[in-house]
Design goal:
By secondary structure, the protein is α/β, with parallel strands linked by helices. It has 18 helices and seven strands. The chain folds into two domains: 2-199, no CATH class; 233-382, Nitrogenase molybdenum iron protein domain (Rossmann fold), CATH 3.40.50. Helices cover 58% and strands 8% of the residues. Strands 1, 2, 3, 4, 5, 6 and 7 form a seven-stranded mixed sheet that branches.
Length: 384
């Protein structure tokens, strides 16, 4: 503890607070500029958008920031040959651990404040839905773990080389390779320390693989993931049901929010044996999985769909058909409404990543059974 206290005392004039403030300002300005370019409808997925972009921002900024902090902490030891003097008083191992503990506390404080600021930004921007506090906590913990792995490397370089440019160049290289690693195969990304920031942009069930890698439980994580896949394995060899489906919600400004054709929800409909009616809908110039279209375009594309799946995670859950028709009266002309095949997802659908195979199984029952009992389904409720 005495050595740790000395580290903080020594760094009181190393402008560490200024470095941390610069990191926070850069990340906030980056994401703020991104938000300014988005349409209000895009912000309906604001929390998801935040986590995806925060992982990318971390991959660019944190490697350089971690290298700078390590350099600021170790630079004094090379001035006046004080490093050799310190080694006569304490073992190199104890000195390294004291500096590592200093870095752990500084990075923890930095990332906790960063998460609080981004949480506040999301609330200020009016992101739809409850703030995902649990996801913020996990994301902060994982960011800290990855940063500490890199900090250990950077601290070693800063202690080994008197010229701190070596460590800083390594940080710049790490920032570059961290972004490039997002294009690497997953097996190769695991060999790149800076690539783990990009891995945190993974969504849904693949998060469990990242947890496993970071916690040294790769085999267990792979098993959990494989078990989830096995739950839908019987459907993989099945024949298409011939049923068409639309996955949508109606916004307050009379637009229909639908998934793009290449989105994973569209693929899940296919795995369930259905056919997504907007399969040809492509990128609209943003990074979101959804796109807002006019009600006229939605009418043209989904009127004859066999099944309507209303996404309640954006605009809230519906209980009755009357509530749906109150939002959009023209839906009364739709085939699925007239046949009574309209279903609403639970509002917590995307908060239960490891249970998403159950949504595929639910949709398969809707596609293959005349009138499945929604009390036996996990994520779908029929509108009457």
């Amino acid at each position: 503890m005495k050595l740790l206290g000395l580290e903080f005392y020594k760094c009181r004039r190393r402008k560490v607070v200024l470095v941390c403030a610069a990191v926070l300002a850069a990340e906030l300005l980056w994401f703020g500029a991104y938000l300014a370019r988005q349409d209000p409808e895009d912000l309906l997925h604001g929390w998801m958008l935040l986590f995806y972009n925060l992982a990318m921002i971390d991959a660019i900024i944190l490697p350089i920031s971690v290298a700078t902090l390590a350099s600021r902490n170790c630079e004094l030891e090379h001035k006046g040959a004080s490093l050799k003097l310190l080694e006569t008083m304490v073992t190199p191992g104890r000195l390294y651990l004291a500096k590592l503990a200093w870095g752990a506390l500084v990075l923890a404080a930095l990332l906790i404040i960063r998460s609080a600021l981004f949480l506040g930004m999301g609330l200020w921007a009016g992101f739809v839905g409850a703030a995902p506090l649990g996801r913020f906590g996990v994301f902060t913990l994982l960011s800290w773990a990855v940063s500490m792995m890199i900090y250990g490397l950077q601290q070693g370089l800063s202690l080994r080389f008197a010229n701190q440019a070596v460590a800083l160049v390594c940080g710049i290289f790490g920032s570059f390779i961290g972004i490039m690693s997002m294009l690497f195969p997953p097996s190769l990304v695991r060999c790149v320390p800076w690539g783990y920031y990009g891995l945190m942009a993974l969504a849904r069930m693949e998060w469990v693989k990242l947890y496993g890698v970071l916690l040294g439980k790769t085999d267990e994580a792979e098993q959990v993931f494989d078990d989830a896949v096995q739950r839908i394995a019987p459907l993989l060899d099945g024949e298409p049901t011939g049923k068409t489906a639309a996955f949508f919600s109606i916004t307050s400004n009379n637009l229909a929010t639908v998934r793009k054709g290449g989105d994973y929800v569209a693929k899940m409909i296919g795995l369930a044996g259905g056919s997504y009616v907007f399969a040809d809908l492509t990128d609209s110039g943003n990074n979101l999985a959804t796109v807002n279209i006019s009600l006229e375009d939605f009418y043209a594309g989904a009127r004859d769909a066999d099944v309507l799946l209303y996404n309640s995670t954006i605009e809230g859950e519906l209980r009755t058909m009357d509530e749906l028709l109150a939002k959009c009266p023209m839906l009364a002309d739709f085939k699925a409404v007239q046949s009574g095949s309209v279903w609403c997802t639970s509002q917590s659908l995307f908060q239960q990543s490891m249970e998403l195979p159950e949504l595929i199984l639910d949709m398969n029952r809707v596609f293959t059974e005349d009138d499945p009992d929604d009390s036996e389904l996990t994520f779908l409720t029929k509108l009457h």
